[in-house]
Amino acid sequence: MTVHRSGRDLDRPRDEVDRLVTAWRQERPDLDVEPLQVLSRVSRLARHLDRARRAAFAEHGLENWEFDVLTALRRAGEPYELSPGSLLRATLVTSGTMTNRIDRLAAAGLVRRRPDPEDRRGVLVSLTDAGRVRVDDAFADLLRRERDLLAGLGKHEQQALADLLRTLLVPFDATDTGAH
User: What is the pLDDT of residues 5-45, one digit of tens each?
Assistant: First the structure.
């Protein structure tokens, strides 16, 4: 099967997905490989984003899971505290995993526990000043790296892409049970 590229396609740079789609069209002309055009690019982009995130977090002495917990607390607003149950829902991990994470973050001085004044058996997890500074710095660095990843798109293109991706994600988010 010969694939002809239009004049508009000839002006566009080719990426690795273009090469794999062309190869699959030659090897399996009986299959419609069009989904690869979008989803292989999303997958490859996710790997680049994961690398950028890991680099941003590592530069600030954080692991992905630490960033997840600290940002959940930071997004809660002042006084930057949540119950362990709220942190479970925000980060989609088990109770035992969350207890371990809170212990490790407390030992690092990034969070502290205090009794819940509304529930004598309950505990609240609070972001320390050191935790707030660390997560704010890591988040600013992450946003800079993410802007770099999107630098090839204008504002309107970024918005159009965000809208299209939202359309794809909404059905998954609606049926997500949180059992990861």
Answer: 555 556 778 999 999 999 999 999 999 999 999 999 999 99
- Predicted structure pTM score: 0.79
Q: How many residues does the chain have?
A: 180
Quick one: pLDDT at residue 120? 83
Q: Are 110 and 127 in contact (CB under 8 A)?
A: yes
* pLDDT on residue 3: 47
Q: How far apart are CA 114 and CA 60, in angstroms?
A: 26
Alpha helices in the chain (DSSP H): 7-11, 16-27, 34-59, 64-75, 84-91, 95-107, 129-149, 155-175
Q: Are 47 and 38 in contact (CB under 8 A)?
A: no
Whether residue 20 contacts residue 40, with contact meaning beta carbons closer than 8 Å, is answered with yes
Mapping DSSP to helix (H, G, I), strand (E, B) and coil, where does residue 33 land?
Answer: coil
Residue carrying structure tokens 């794809």 = 168
Q: How far is Cα of residue 127 from the mean position of the Cα atoms in its chain?
A: 21
Instruction: Give the chain's largest Cα–Cα span.
Output: 72
Q: Sheet holding 119-127: strands in order across?
A: 81-82, 119-127, 111-116
Tokens 């995993």 sit at which residue?
Answer: 97
